[in-house]
Amino acid sequence: MGCGHKDDKASLSSSQRASFSHQSHQPPSAAASKEVWKKGGRMFSILLAVHLVLLACTLVSSGAFEKIAVHDYDVFFLLTIMMLIVIVWIIFYLASTSRCPDAILCKDSHAGPIWLRGGLILFAIFSLVMDVFKIGYYSSFYSCLSAIKIIYPIVQAIFVVVQTYFLWTSAKDCVHVHLNVTRCGLMLTLTTNLAVWMSAVTDESVHKAHSKLKKNATEEIFRWLLKVGMRSSSAEECNCNSQICQLFKNGYFWLYPFNIEYSLFASAMVYVMWKNVGRFIDHHSHPIHRLKFRLFRRTFFVRIVLGLIILVSGLGVLILYEVQVNSSTESSKKRQALTMYYIFNIVCLGLMSLVCIGGSVIYRFDKRDMDRHKNPTRTLDVALLMGAALGQYAISYYSIVAIVASTPRDTISALNLTYALLMIAQHTFQNIFIIEGLHRQPPKEDHKHSSHQKDLYGLTFVNINAVSLRMPDSGSTLAPSAASGTEATHPSDLVRSLTVPKKMNWRRRCLREISMFLLLSNIILWIMPAFGARPQFDNDTELNFYGDSMWPAIVDICLPFGIFYRMHAVASLLEVYIMS
């Protein structure tokens, strides 16, 4: 497939590509036909993605149960094939498509911001470490395993490296050649990341379920439960008695949350690239905002210090929770750990809710214009925030129903009910605050004032009455001013010019403080459930009300969305912080 094949943009001449204004001068019939073909190409790639997602979902969910004749190595075989195809397409894109003449006429300045790509690289590094641990774990007893279990982490490591480089260099591209191939390739990449995410979530859930069964049952009962219920990993049927083998096993399960977040981050960036295929951007009507990241400039440090205190306190609560709940069988220590966990989260969620309400009130008085330009990145951010919040909403509402309908009610139940209600409120208020911030125009630079105002701003003290005495009345004749081309300044205008920037700076400082506090709080609320602090499995109220099969299934389905919500909120709040 050569570069001469331009799909639905083949009729564009080089002079037309140089200026994007030619689209408005095209005949309506030509523009309509191109739009129809654009939608047709998108629809074909969407159908491809839907079928692949359904196939992967079917295999992954079937491979998690013992009675279904689908094994985990069948899932690994499908994922390996999908990743190899994506690797081949990415190499083709980098070597051929992106190097064609007029392939990339413009770039989306909002796509792939530096903090998102930086987070992707961080998660990619941990994913590579996880793959190394997997290779070491499966290599410890390769004689009793299928070869695909060792091949899969090797291919996944190559896939992570190639995809990370691809997204780092090409996330902002608006491609105008090989449109249909690029759309299908991007959708295949997105589908592969979602399939890997589903496999990782399922594998982690099965592992935690087996760990809980082993802690609460004898070895004979555990083996019987495996026969009638969920499938064990085929690696567990082999002997892993050496210390290095146990280290590899525990290591890669602890690193699963990073691999899960990597897949979701990559999926979001690939989706934006897919939306930008064939897109023209007029930078005159859609200006590029050069944002400067200054972490501690113009801040009061109050909420930053408070956020750091919450972050450190949360790490302490997480360590104590892991020790008292997962490593101890005494019910009293379990209740103490649950009480401590709920009190910390209630305080944290309450503060976050109040801060979000305060930030939304400040936005009501913000004079900045709303950014109404087309922005696929912002649209995706809002959709992911609203969609991922549904997972935590579902868990909270299930908990509320179980607590209200159950008897008797104790202190743990009261704390759990308060925790569930605050979780709903905090998600709602935080979404409102983030969406408000994402739709605001960046502030103008403070140095863009007239020379007369600059001189006045530089004074340590300004006597407004003295200045007004030197200013002529509005009705008087200003020959010198008129000759020099300078407009007369009214005293009220002068006062306004001196006071408004201070008010704006005060608002911006508060918004920056709020954004940083929420960012640090969301980090600890992501770390706690991602690394084992999950009271939904340790609190008996919901488990007794919904049963041993329904409630774990609800949590396993909804909790990954709640964890992803926290990580995506961190990225969005960082953008709101820089935009403030």
TrEMBL record:
Homology family: Belongs to the otopetrin family.
Organism: Ardeotis kori
Transmembrane residue ranges: 43-63, 75-94, 114-138, 150-168, 253-274, 300-321, 341-363, 383-405, 514-533, 553-578
Region (Disordered): 1-30
Top-rank lineage group of the source organism: Eukaryota
UniProt protein name: OTOP2 protein
Residue spans of biased composition, Basic and acidic residues class: 1-10
Gene Ontology cellular component annotations, sorted alphabetically: plasma membrane
Compositional bias annotation for Low complexity: 11-26
